[in-house]
Amino acid sequence: MSYPRELFDPESFEHDLKRAPTPLAVYKAALAAGAASIGQRFAMGAPITELVAQRTGLVDELVTRAWRKWELAGKPFALIAAGGYGRRELHPGSDVDILVLTGTRVASKDHERMESFVRFLWDIGLEVGHSVRTVAQCRDMAADDITIATNLMEARLLAGDIALYEAMRTTTGAATLWPPAAFFEAKLGEQAVRHRKFHDTAHNLEPNIKEGPGGLRDIHTIAWVTKRHFGADSLAGLLDHGFLTSDEHRTLDSGQSFLWRIRFALHTLAGRREDRLFFDYQRLVAAQFGYLSDDQDQLAVERFMKHYYRIVMELSRLNEMLLQLFQEAILERDHAVEIQPLNKRFRIRNAYIEACDEQVFKRYPFALLEIFLLLQQNPHIEGVRASTIRLIRDHRHLIDDKFRNDLKARSLFIEILRQPRRLGHELQRMHRYGVLEAYLPDFGAVAGLMQFDLFHVYTVDVHTLFVVQNMRRYTNPENKDALPMCARLMAQIPKPEILYIAGLFHDLAKGRGVDHSQVGATIAAEFCQHHGLGRYDTRLVAWLVEHHLRMSTTAQRRDVSDPEVVNEFARLVGNRVRLDYLYLLTVADIRGTNPALWNSWKDALLTELYENTLRALRRGVRNPIEKEEWIAEIKGEALAILLPSSLSKEAILSVWQDLGEEYFLRHGPEEIAWHTQAIAGGRAGELPLVLIRPKTGRGGTEIFIYGHDQDHLFTAATHALDRLGLTIMDARIISSPKGFTLDTYIVLEAATHEMIQSDARAQEIAAALEAKLVSAEPLSVKTNRRPAPELKHFKLPTEVSFSADNANARTLMEVVATDRPGVLSQIAMAMRHCGVRLQNAKIATFGARVEDIFYITDTENRPIQDPLKFECLRNSITAALEP
């Protein structure tokens, strides 16, 4: 291979080698100079295929020259490149896998030379993987391990005994080991396992460009099967065998080049092998590829990632189609053909649906939707034949405005949404085949659209389909125990398709720089009207889309036990039908946004809001429950729990008279009964009292602190909880009229996001809290927990704002900041420093974003009026959270 002289100059290399006292520096310099030259050419936009080949050629030169230098060339050995090195696919940080093939037992002197040779390659800067084997050993190991068989299939002779190399190729080839059918099945299973590691989607927030679905390994899988079955050395060989069209080959080729460019950039930026497109690199690669932040609606990194996701989606589609073709050609070639007609357009061939002829979609364009309905209605069909997948791909252009306005097509799409089976599965398939975005252009607009934050871990299109899939799972008996309330409500709603349409459209207006809820409601209403839904159903869908965030934000940011909050939410909802649909949509949305977001605490919050709202709706929104009536009901239920105990009614009421109204508004009957028993049985000198319930109906571990009201208690408690490795999900801080504080914290283990699992852990927490609350030692501002590494990419400016809570004679302070361990503790210390008293708090975290609300007063329990205190709070909190 010829190289630019700046890449590798053989004459200069040999000249330097003769003058140097040892070869190490010369080889090392040659590798570094060649790598630098390739890196410069990459930065200047040279074709990536040339650069990868040149990197491989450079390594070939140095490895084979070192082989000769170590006097191994004249021996009965073969030096072989394997794996990615064997297929000439080296990037800056790629492993260099070499195999030394021997015909006989290696003499000790030669073995020492081989070890020295490999050490030398490491010393010059190559990441070497090596093995020394006989032909028989290669055969035995390849027979046991498909990965080894695959690596040997890609082996390439670098130097040495060609007869040994050919013998190895023969003994490990398809005629001897892993015939095409067995090889294909093994590779198909291998890919399925690999895809499951990435949740079977290429649209993860930090994708693996090599191993993830639609990544380089999917292209390798196609190439390996091609080589094993057809003996072709490249994907171009599939053209000759009629398995690939020219357009499809161009798509594979350009997709591979795009991924190679990203991989080359990642290796260069990381200074080592790196195949995950971490947040660290996404902005850098986007800028390197020419994506600039000149679009007000989308960040440059979001546009780059959208391009990436669309490329890998198309590669995934081709991978699925080609593997299906291989299955038919390799596994089913000798099977008896069994054909079952479905209608005049489709039939079933050996359990797979296929078009009756190549003109079906041209004559009947609506069949592009009909095929998915047939798959739903015939669950025994295992999939779509590859020839029909290709026909669908080739006829997607027929889905135009005329198609979308056709009554038959509109009826088919609505019928798909109304099917009792396989809705999520077939919508996913429609997306993979490119039909869904063709039929719903608004869905196509968000295909591959990511949001550069930690709250959304999937692209909008994938998230949308996960939401609908979550809704379908409500009807699955296997999921009944996991989400019993959702299963019950799903069985009660009159029209499930209303829920599915709302789920399908709830985020489709994202990426436009507008309020996606309002614009999405308009888009959804237009869809419903266009598809013949009635006025009531259309209004319901539009309302759900417009308000799809309201239940979540109300539950997480406001006090769902406050009658005023509940009544306000009930007025928005208006009736139980809307409430049921909105609850089901909210749960599916949260669970489809980020698997880590859903936990027992959110479950409990939403359930409490639902039940309180339902009670308010039953009374009627024009007859809202008043505070006094609410308190009376809560007390009555708590009293019913307590009376069977040893406490007298007089003792119970004696405790209650000191607690104040707000306490009864903020706690449920079971909590009140628990607290009352402990307070009544305690002694004044034993305060503060710390109670812990590891598992509660509120979805977290509940910690209750009762003691004399002192301004430092909140600061000390949050500091202690942070040091104990606990995440505070909710805080209710209440001061009684008699000078006592009644503070409740809902916490989860920071490491696992689970409730406390053992009595020993609960005792440890209680002891640490009791000690901290009575300690006079100054509190450290440092936390003993490190922030998650990915948080550094989502730094938000800290915002501190104030407003009046006139109804409760308090000041409302809202803090928006980047999440990290110890945030609440640091805010508490700032409040103490500024001389303000906390009366209540609402804690909410959305991905990397903290949105905490604090109800505060001065030390005399009055709303804050002093501008200096506002300034003190703003400056102290900002300084604490932005070091």
Task: Please outline what is shown here.
The chain is of the alpha+beta class and about 900 residues long.
Describe this structure in words.
By secondary structure, the protein is an alpha+beta fold. The protein has five domains: 10-178, Beta Polymerase, domain 2 (2-Layer Sandwich); 180-332, Four Helix Bundle (Hemerythrin (Met), subunit A) (Up-down Bundle), CATH 1.20.120; 336-422, Hydrophobic Seed Protein, CATH 1.10.110; 444-619, no CATH class; 627-881, no CATH class. It is 54% helix and 12% strand. The protein is built from 39 helices and 17 strands. The strands form four sheets. Strands 13, 14, 15, 16 and 17 form a five-stranded antiparallel beta sheet that branches. Strand 6 (346-349) and strand 7 form a beta hairpin. Helix 9 packs antiparallel against helix 10 (216-230), helix 30 (576-593) runs antiparallel to helix 31 (600-619) and helix 32 (627-642) packs across helix 35. The longest helix is centred in the middle third of the chain and has 32 residues, at 300-331. It is globular, with a radius of gyration of 33 Å. The two termini are 55 Å apart. The model has no long low-confidence stretch (mean pLDDT 89).
Mean pLDDT: 89
Number of helices: 39
Percent of residues in beta strands: 5-15%
Cα shape: globular
SSE arrangement:
Elements: H1 10-19, H2 24-43, H3 48-69, E1 77-81, H4 83-86, E2 96-102, H5 108-124, E3 128-134, H6 135-144, H7 146-153, E4 156-160, H8 162-171, H9 180-196, H10 216-230, H11 237-240, H12 246-270, H13 279-288, H14 300-331, E5 339-341, E6 346-349, E7 352-355, H15 360-363, H16 367-377, E8 383-384, H17 386-394, H18 401-405, H19 407-418, H20 423-432, H21 435-439, H22 441-445, H23 460-473, H24 484-492, H25 496-505, H26 516-530, H27 535-546, H28 550-557, H29 563-573, H30 576-593, H31 600-619, H32 627-642, H33 649-656, H34 661-666, H35 669-681, E9 689-693, E10 701-708, H36 713-723, E11 726-735, E12 740-749, H37 759-774, E13 799-805, E14 810-818, H38 823-833, E15 837-842, E16 845-846, E17 849-857, H39 867-881
Parallel strand pairs: 2-3, 7-8
Antiparallel strand pairs: 1-2, 1-4, 5-6, 6-7, 9-10, 10-12, 11-12, 13-14, 14-17, 15-17, 16-17
Helix pairs in contact: 2-3, 6-7, 6-8, 9-10, 9-14, 10-14, 12-13, 12-14, 13-14, 14-17, 16-19, 16-20, 20-23, 23-25, 23-30, 25-27, 25-30, 26-27, 28-31, 29-31, 30-31, 32-35, 33-35, 36-37, 36-38, 38-39
